[in-house]
Amino acid sequence: MSPPPPAARRTRPPAGGRVFGALNVLGVYGLVGGLFALGCAISREFISPDNLMNALRAVTLLGIVAVGLAFVTYSRHYVDLSIPGIMALSGTVAVWALKFGFVPSLAIGLAVGALVGLVNGLVIGYLRLNPIIWTLAMMSLLSGVIRWAYAGRQIYPDKATAAGRAFLELYHHRLLGLLPLPVAVLLAVAAGGYFLMRHTGYGARLKLTGSAYEVARLTGINVRRAVAGAFVISSLTSAAAGVLLTSFNKVGAVYIGGGYDFRTITAVVLGGMTLAGGRGSIVGVLGGVAAIALMNNVMSLVRVGQFVLGDFQQNIVQGAVFILVVGINSFARRRTGGDDA
Amino acid sequence: MTTRRTAAWAMAAMLGAIGGCRSEPAGRKAPADRAEALKQSLAVDVSGLKSADTQPLIIMDETPLQPPPRPADPLKLPEDDPLHWYDMEYAGWRGRKVNLPRSPGDGALGKRVICLRHMDHPYTTAYTRGMEKVAGACGIRLKTLTAGNADVNIQSQQVDQVVNERPDLVILFPVDATAVVPMLRKLNQAGVPIIASNLLPVDQGMPYVLTWTGPDDWGQFRMLAREFAKRMNHEGGYCIVRHMPGGSPFFSRTFSVVTELKKIAPRMKCFDMQTTLLEAEKTAQVVSGWITKYGAELKGIVSADDSGAQIGINEACRNAGREDIIRVAAGNSKVGMDFIKAGKLHGITYQSAEADGALPMKIAADWFNGKEDLKPVYYLPKHVITAKDVDQYMPAQW
Amino acid sequence: MTPSAPDPTRAAARPPGRARPFAKAAAAAYRYRVYLLCTIIFAVMGAAAPHFLTPGNFSNVLKGTSTNLPAAVGFTIVLIAGQLDLSVGSAMTMGGILVMGLSPSLGWAGAFGVAVLCGLGLGLTNGLLVAKARINSFIVTLGTMIIVYNAMAIYCRGGTIPATTFALSDFLQRPVVDLDPRGAPPALLWLTLWLTPRNLVSLAVMAAAAVFLRRTPAGRGLHLMGGNPQAAWYSGLHVDRYVIGAFALSGLLAAVGGAVVAAGEAAGSLKLGENSLMTIVAAVIIGGTSMEGGKGTVVGTTVALVALTALINGLSCLGAGHEVQLVASGLVLALIILYDAYWLHRRQRRRGQRKDLLEELQARAASDPPAGRGSQGAPSAPGPGREGRSHG
After folding, report:
1. A-interface mutation test, from B292, B294, B297, B319, most A Cβ less than 10 A away
2. Does domain C37-342 have CATH number 3.30.300?
3. What does pTM read for this prediction?
């Protein structure tokens, strides 16, 4: 169907509105529920707490990065392709900075990541460069800089020092002996992100900036600062995830964080955020992350005699589900009279 | 900022980037008299050099090569038959050669050698370090190029560039054992001597090279499989974490284990083999899926990498409380050796990156000195590192 | 608050009509920036890198360019139509692996045919999902990229498929006029060494696409559709068919490119198109195609690809490591888009300034008492959609 003439307006509710209305409200959690049911049907071990914890652990860092990227997508700036570079840089710099102590090293790692995000934000927000191309160039630069700075080696936290040992234990640390630190960080980041997006002026400004940039600008909102802020937020979460991932890998290397760029945008879009901006929520993003976790888990538990779903087959299913879910989402939105962005 | 100033900064940046290029070992200039050059070159002795883990730098496996007879069509055999993989495992053993260039015979001083590596990785950094040590000692001028991020197209372009530049010898670390065959043929037809390194090209490519040096992936993993089977008491189920697809360890570190265990421990069963792109998180997720699915039947896990992938495996085992699972991997990085000391990993293969880089350079120097009767393949010694001898291999090279 | 609103009082200080020095040169430099970039890179590399300015190396640079060229042309076409096609790399891999895998059973012609048809099928799928199901092209092509790559991985079982003979590969890589490199005069070598069938196929693709985009109604329609979809719809263009057609072309060309590369290299590898996407995107942007659509040329893309390949090649000749190549290509891309943004900014600042209106204003200001800023009625803030389209 071609774009309808602007003057047309529906005067009665569209057919099928109730089904799609329900889909609209449930969003990705409909998919999560469906996967849950499928998992229970496929395997008895699915419902065990160990298995669910494993599924959660696999996507904790993905969730942290996704919450940050959600702000970038919310502002209609597509994606931040320099996320893997920021993760590797923060982690590597944090390991290098361990000589200053454990807490300073974390602070320095996060600061370096935020600095890269600031550069991204300034260039994309103020100079209005295309985000995909700029972050692509930045990724290339970061990758080259990390390799050059460490002459192609990877650096290890020094186990002889207390700071090094603390860093190696960081990923496995449990707050109050119970809650794994990455999960705690995810919860904190998610809560903070939700609050920021829904209940602060910044979130409201970002929403308008994402939905209608020109209107926001003419309203007097400092759109450039809002967009720059989104990139800083994204880089902060990436830096945090990068430091945690480096701690998990026990080494600071340039390949840390590889693959995160496309996986994160998959999670964000699956969770109901549209690339057109201004729509979606952090709750949805968490749902998208949970959907990915459950999909991986369910598929890896498939065992029909000798037949198992190999890695390639799982990826194909993920890609197909991704397109399907987004298609259904946008179709449902259009059917219920919403904007079909 | 005006356009002109921006342009000036751009030029400065580019020139700075060019100026910051890594400089190559300069090599020594050879004396004009060929006999004198040869005498000086022969006087160089590299046998005393050591690598960063205090092991000797120049090491090789001296066992004689005795390939089994080749079946008529290996690919028609089933995958768990070792002879299916004949052209990969015994590539070059029969030593047919085509159009080999003759040695100039005037020593190695001042010779230009280009090394084409497959990618930038801490392993290849150590590899080049070893190569540069020998090149420096022998007075060879070494230039090292990297094929992007294991990009076959870039390696092909670099091979063309080498044909254009005509160095005295090329050391080629292939990105892919099959795709490298036409490249070897092109170099051979241009008359450039080649020593292939680390990744064994498939048999069709071996006639074009002087020789190949590197770790014996198939042989070492068979050794590792025997150690694995011993620890598992020759029974139980196991899974394999594979290397990256599109490369040769994807097969060599998987099917060597499968075929060997089928032979020596028929009661052991391979449940699954998956690639996880050597990422720690993905490996953790896949292995915890295995543990949930196969439960107590899963008794062992073989891994193609002892750093990133092994971290994921150990994480999954720890979370599931299954520290009883027997784990072996391909080594030997610092992370892997630390795991061995901690008892979380039971055996890794010994693969000295520096020795891997030093050996082809030593063979090249020998060839320049006139030694033309080279073995078809030179393997590095095979060894499985366990907790008993891991301290001898510290500090790790990468 | 409106940054582009011109200040007539400041403009009045500069006499209207006086050309700024170098204005024309600067404008020309911007218009032909990709050629300028290519020349600079060749000059710098030629001066600094040994063996760079040799016929053999020039042939290598063109060979490297022709590897990604058909897919880049396809990507340009889709981008001009206002959409993104992230699956070009996977389509190349698909073309390469299918050609190699099917050639023993179907022969070369049959294998090529199947590979091309599969590329066309992929493109049609992308186009249908974007046009009819109205899913964002970024999403659709991200999904199909993953699906196609993994489907090919299953087909070739993770291994590389070798060619059965070297005959086709030799044919594709040997120059059409085969001179002995050592005997022939250099001038002739410069002309003939790079004229290999493999390069010729890519150049033919580029030429056909250039003609299509510039001279045919369909091509002009693509430009219109990318630049202003509303206007295109109002003019009666079947917008959906254009979108589907653009994607179909992109898939087809990428598969052709991959098939030719694999046949030329005598091996179909899973890694064939792995790094192509980023290179292609960089080249297309540097070549002047706009991310918003409606503007761009395949010649610009080609020259940009040549420039990027020459940069990497030159750094290789210098023996520079991979990290230097990464930083250099990232810097070049960043600088070009910064330059673009700077020029756009300048153009927007001037858009409101019309010389005749300015003269009238100044005349009025000279005769009437100063009426303050409220009297500026003529120059208006940039219309809706202009600033908003600056980021795309």
Report:
1. B292
2. no
3. 0.88
